[in-house]
What does this fold into?
Amino acid sequence: MEALEHPPIFSLPGIPDHVTYTWLVMVILAGLTFIASRNLQLVPLGLQNFLEVILEQFQQIIDDVMGPEGRKYLPLLATLGLFILTANLMGLVPGTAGVTSNLNTNAACALVVFGAYHWIGVRKQGLIPYLKHFAGPVPMALKPLMFVIEIISHLARPLSLTLRLFGNMVGGHILLAVIFLLMTQLILWALSGSVPGAIIGGTGGIVTIVFTVGFLYPLKILVAFLQAFIFVMLTMLYISAAIEEGEHHSEQHAGHH
Amino acid sequence: MRRSLILGGLAVLVFPTAALAAEGGTGGWIAPFAVIAAGIGMAIAAGLCGLGQGRAVASAVDAMARQPGAAARIQTAMIIGLALIESLAIYTLVIALILLFVKGINFA
It folds into this structure.
C-alpha cells in the first residue's frame, strides 16, 4: 500500500499521518459548528440552516429506526456519522491521507460503539437481566452453549464494523492509485514523441481520465456516504436491540398473535 | 478444452516453485503463491458477492414495485442487507491485501 500511495502533502514529524488528518477533521467539524452556533437565530440562515438540515436528517433516520426513545442517542450517532462522513470525503482529496483507510481509526470508532451499546443496555436493564438475555429463549440445557455463541457474535460486531469501513476505503484508494499510475504512464508515453505512443497512450490517457472523473470519483463519493450511513445504521440497530431486549418477548408475542 | 485449462492452471501453480527451486533462492517461495491466492480468492469472492447482492436487490425491487408505499423502509433494509453481504467480500479483500502487501508475515 505504501508503495502505491503517495505520502500526503502535509505531515507532522513523529505523528502518524492518519492522526494528523483526524485532527484536521476534528478542527473542520468543531470550527463549522462553532461558527454556525455563535449567533443562533430562530429563522436559520446560511451555515446554521445547512447544519440544521443535516441534523434533521439524522433525527429523522433515528425516529424511523429507533422510535422516540432514540433521540437520547443523537449526539453519539450524529458525531460518529459526521466524523466518518467527513473523513471518508476528505480521503478522496488528492494529497491528503485517508483517515478511515487506517485500521486504528475504524477500530476506535467500532470499539466506542461496542462499549456504548453494552453500557446503554446494562444501564437500561441492569447487569443480570442483560446478561441473561444473551442465553436466549432456549431450554436450560442449551443455555451455556447459546451464551458462548452469543458472546462470540457480539465480539464479531466491532470486527465487522471495522473491517467493512476499512476494506471499502482502502479498496477504493488502491483502485484510484492504480488508475492514477496507469494514467501517468499512458500520458508520459503519449508525450514521449513516438507515433504508437501518441495514438495508444493519448487515447488511453483520455479514457482513464474520463473513467476516473466520470465514474470512479462519483462512485467513491457514493461509497463514502453509504459507508457512513451503514455505520450509523448498524450502531442504531445495536443500540435499539440492547435497550429493547428486556421487553422483547412479551412485545413480540403481542405483535404476532 | 477443460482438461487443457486445468492442466494450464496447474502449470501456472507449479511453475513458480520450480523456477525458484532451480534458482535455489532461500525463503520467499511463498510470495508467488500469495499473489495467486489473492487474485483467485478475490475473484471468487467478488463473483459470489455479486450473485448474492443481485438476489437481494432483485427481491427488494420486486417488493418496492408491489408496494410503492413501503419503498423507503424496504430500501433501508436493502441497504443494510447489501452492506452485510458486501462485508463478506470485504473480508476477502482484507485477506488479499494482507497477502499482497504485508511483508512481515512469516508464512513458513
